[in-house]
Amino acid sequence: SNQKIRSSKNSRYFCSLHYIMFSKKKKEDDPAVLHPSQNDDSRVVVIPIDESQHAETAFDWYLKNQRKPNDKVKLVHCAELEQPSGAYYPDYAVPPEAWQDQIEKSKDRVHKLMEKYEKKMKDSKVSGSVYSEMGRAGECVCKVADKSNANLIIMGSRGLGMVRRTVMGSCSEYVLHHSKVPVTIIPKEDPNKYI
């Protein structure tokens, strides 16, 4: 009789434990827990911007062809500080005031660019943010996409000539080969096509 009571208690304990484990497993396996972003219609879309027409074409293409109501758009400008004019050699001693002047000019350009795209987003009623990051363009775009858990990158192609592409490389090619998410590249020639 004591053995039956003990056995009954053990089976109740086992059943309770099994229920807890099963419930926990179900909760962890629930797609809503593993992939919360897939249960609503929201996406994070990263669009690199600069002062070129290529960037504007990519943004406009997104509005016309890819926009969804719950999208969060991150417009990012990846800034690289160029050497002041006159600094022809890597070891050339550039005066501090020349660097300061270059920094101020760069800040002014970036500020105007931010204002322009903030207005475009507001006018288009797009939800998201516009900001600037320092770094090489291709690496910077991939880093921002990783940090923001992006679902998609849309960017313009500069359409560099063969010589310039060989010497400089291509930001869009870098992103295409290093991105962990789908990349849509919009050629300037025909914005209705994409690769």
TrEMBL record:
CDD domains: USP_At3g01520-like. Pfam families: Usp. InterPro entries: Rossmann-like_a/b/a_fold (IPR014729), Universal_stress_UspA (IPR006015), UspA (IPR006016). It comes from the Eukaryota. PANTHER family: USP DOMAIN-CONTAINING PROTEIN, USPA DOMAIN-CONTAINING PROTEIN. This is Uncharacterized protein. It comes from Owenia fusiformis (Polychaete worm).
